[in-house]
């Protein structure tokens, strides 16, 4: 399943499967900014990618010495009621490929899953239309951001020696180096937040409890502004508090016999009442606009934030 969200830039759309993220847009002559793939290019990409994978799978199964392949797809949209759309594709095969092996590989393309799907008559069915009410307007969003700023205005910064909450791997130490001067969360550049540490965008995973509390508002505001691409504060506010994981044992070396709920509750125990109110307001807002994560958010609210 793919979830697509409108961005503030005209026609720019962010889409995700819950793990990978990309963007789509239209061309400037149609009012867009040309900042992402055009929708029909994504359709071409789906077929080209599947054809490419199919060739490589077939070569592997048949021990064909295919060293590389390039597939180019072009969609001819046709004329409604007169000429059906046609997907034209070109294939480049690399390696010691004889004519017989070439025929085997081209025949395997008949098994391409996306090609088979597109070859059938497609039907479209609307299953839900969720209408967002007045609280999702720009005025409400600005009020929510103001609530976050006010709630965390007096949050104490962490001690420079207590920035990381882990010693496993390189990222905690990279984080410690990049945040060593403990910059004011109000002044931290959003690009820095999204990349820290060292391009991983994983700081929220390795902050100490104190550092997580102090820098969380910067991440929340950046997320509400739609500028984060790697960092995901929403995930860190529901993960471990959802029904699926709350009772599972967590990292035994670090937390002993604790469950996810116990470990995350301990991590969040330092939040003040006002900070929790701001976090709950953020989570409720995200639950309304993020259909993909809505069940997890609602479970976290029920199991911890509103408990």
How is this structure best summarized?
With 307 residues, this protein is mainly α. It has helices at residues 39-62, 99-108, 113-118, 138-151, 171-178, 190-195, 203-206, 209-224, 233-238, 252-255, 260-267, 273-289, 294-305; strands at residues 3-6, 13-16, 21-24, 66-76, 86-95.
- Unreliable runs, pLDDT <50, ≥5 residues? none
Overall helicity: 40-55%
The strands making up the biggest β-sheet line up spatially as 1-2-3
Question: How far do the termini sit from each other?
Answer: 31 Å
Annotation keywords:
307 residues; GMP Synthetase, Chain A, domain 3; 3 domains
What topology emerges from the helices and strands here?
Elements: E1 3-6, E2 13-16, E3 21-24, H1 39-62, E4 66-76, E5 86-95, H2 99-108, H3 113-118, H4 138-151, H5 171-178, H6 190-195, H7 203-206, H8 209-224, H9 233-238, H10 252-255, H11 260-267, H12 273-289, H13 294-305
Antiparallel strand pairs: 1-2, 2-3, 4-5
Q: What would you note in describing this structure?
A:
The chain has a 3-stranded antiparallel β-sheet, with no helix packed on it. It has a two-stranded antiparallel sheet with strand order 4-5. The protein is mostly helical and 307 residues long. The protein has helices at 39-62, 99-108, 113-118, 138-151, 171-178, 190-195, 203-206, 209-224, 233-238, 252-255, 260-267, 273-289, 294-305; strands at 3-6, 13-16, 21-24, 66-76, 86-95. The protein folds into 3 domains: 3-37, no CATH class; 40-118, GMP Synthetase, Chain A, domain 3, CATH 3.30.300; 134-305, no CATH class.
